[in-house]
Write a structure and sequence with these properties.
Length: 268
């Protein structure tokens, strides 16, 4: 059966854009998406722009994502954001465990697991990033590393609690480097993640989980990546910083959704 998963295209703006620049970019994306396309779209501005971007996106189908959250709701945690505050500012999604946070800010698998659970409690969709380094890939450890991160992020949570979870497979060597995984290689890892989720939490949930690819996704490679059976969308860094580059990637998500719908109608 062809996938009924709605593709998700997420823009990770990282540490870029002032409030005014964020509003302008969000406005251009919102004008394209309007009140809905066949694929879901979210953008993740810096925390200082979240409130302004929420206003820009209001009345459109573009979701608002944060780039990180602490697991506690409130307390003496200087510099942190919480799921309660993300919900308050209008976030629908939150990126968790990005490799830059793991590498530069000491994010651990245990922390990712606590954040996943806290976000789910508050009904903010976690987009959990997993991925191997170049050394790990060359040592043949890709699946050990990636599946280990998947196990850790979902440990002790059942399929009901995890229902909205999104996973983003982002090979670290492909992030911001212009090197993209070959579509078939990415597909192999995505399929392995899905079968691990099926083993851990049951087939029926695993078939519904969106698994995004991230790492130098751009207009020129989006269609090929998104034509793979288990690549349900993209987490886009550099190319999400201009509407000119991001919109064709959104359109690749729409094409995937339309293709899947046509295939399903032929199968029925
Ligand atoms: P990139 O970043 O598209 O610039 O490689 C992707 C990401 O880090 O999410």
């Amino acid at each position: 059966m062809t996938s009924a998963r709605t593709p998700l295209i997420a823009g990770n703006w990282k540490l870029h854009n002032t409030v005014a620049e964020s509003e302008a970019l969000a406005g251009a994306i919102a004008a394209h998406v309007g009140n809905g396309l066949a694929c879901e779209v979210v953008v993740a501005p810096v925390a200082t722009s979240l409130a302004a971007v929420r206003e820009t996106l209001s009345g459109t189908a573009v979701g608002l994502a944060a780039q990180n959250s602490h697991w506690e709701d409130s307390g003496a945690f200087t510099g942190e954001l919480s799921p309660v505050l993300l919900l308050d500012v209008g976030c629908t999604h939150c990126i968790i465990g990005h490799s830059e946070r793991r590498q530069y800010f000491g994010e651990t698998d245990a922390g990712v697991r606590k954040k996943v659970s806290a976000l789910l409690v508050h009904k903010v969709v976690p987009i959990v990033c997993v991925g191997e380094s170049l050394d790990e890939r060359e040592a043949g450890k890709t699946l050990d590393v990636v599946l280990g991160q998947v196990d850790a992020a979902t440990d002790g949570l059942d399929a009901v609690a995890l229902a909205p979870l999104v996973i983003a497979y982002e090979p670290i060597w492909a992030i911001g480097t212009g090197r993209t995984a070959k579509a078939e290689d990415a597909q192999e890892v995505h399929a392995a993640i899905r079968s691990r989720l099926a083993e851990l939490k049951g087939e029926s949930w695993a078939t519904t989980v969106r698994i995004l690819y991230g790492g130098s996704v751009k207009p020129a490679n989006a269609d090929e990546l998104l034509s793979q059976p288990d690549i349900d969308g993209a987490l886009v860094g550099g190319a999400s910083l201009s509407a000119e580059n991001f919109i064709p990637i959104i359109d690749a998500g729409v094409s995937r959704a339309e293709f899947s719908a046509r295939r399903r109608s032929l199968e029925l």
